[in-house]
Automatic annotation (TrEMBL):
This is Ribosome-binding factor A. The gene is rbfA. Pfam families: RBFA. One of its GO terms (biological process) is maturation of SSU-rRNA. It comes from Hymenobacter rubripertinctus. Signal peptide: none annotated. One of several proteins that assist in the late maturation steps of the functional core of the 30S ribosomal subunit. Associates with free 30S ribosomal subunits (but not with 30S subunits that are part of 70S ribosomes or polysomes). Required for efficient processing of 16S rRNA. May interact with the 5'-terminal helix region of 16S rRNA. Residues 118-149 are annotated as: Disordered.
Length: 149
């Protein structure tokens, strides 16, 4: 479980990296810049694992090429991030980028569940005449106050 400090630093890095990719460094990415789906910071705040989500356009998956571009320009991204967060953080963590494939995994699981064939439940046997003659069943008493009802 993350500490409050880790959560605050993660949130700050996520916001600032998203703004950095959209405003300051859009020239690095062909098409749309990647989104930041999640940031996890180590307990010593020295390493930040950043998960990038890339939208697929026209059936192509530009995720791998975006990830390579980000990794190749990692030093410039960290320096630009340092300029943005220098008043909030003493040391900017080392940035490690990963491709977030949770949307593709969710789509695959949706397809698997959609392809499942679940047979209908068997019908219950009809009640016998002895059950109907006995009348409605009485509810069990849970508390002494139920007597008045």
């Amino acid at each position: 479980m993350e500490s409050k400090r880790q959560q605050k630093v993660s949130s700050l890095l996520q916001q600032e990296l998203a703004a950095l990719f959209q405003r300051d460094l859009p020239h690095l990415f062909p098409g749309l810049p990647p989104g930041i789906s999640m940031v996890r910071v180590s307990p010593d705040l020295g390493v930040a694992r950043i998960y990038l989500s890339v939208l697929t356009v026209g059936g192509t998956n530009p995720g791998e090429e975006h990830l390579l571009l980000v990794k190749d320009n990692g030093k410039a991204i960290r320096q630009a991030l340092a300029k943005r967060v220098r008043s909030q953080l003493r040391i900017v963590p080392e940035l490690v980028f990963f491709l977030d494939d949770s949307a593709a995994y969710a789509a695959q699981m949706d397809k698997v569940f959609g392809d499942l064939h679940i047979p209908a439940a068997p019908e219950k046997p009809e009640s016998s005449d002895s059950d109907a003659a006995a009348g409605p069943t009485k509810r069990p008493r849970l508390f002494a106050d139920d007597e008045n009802e």
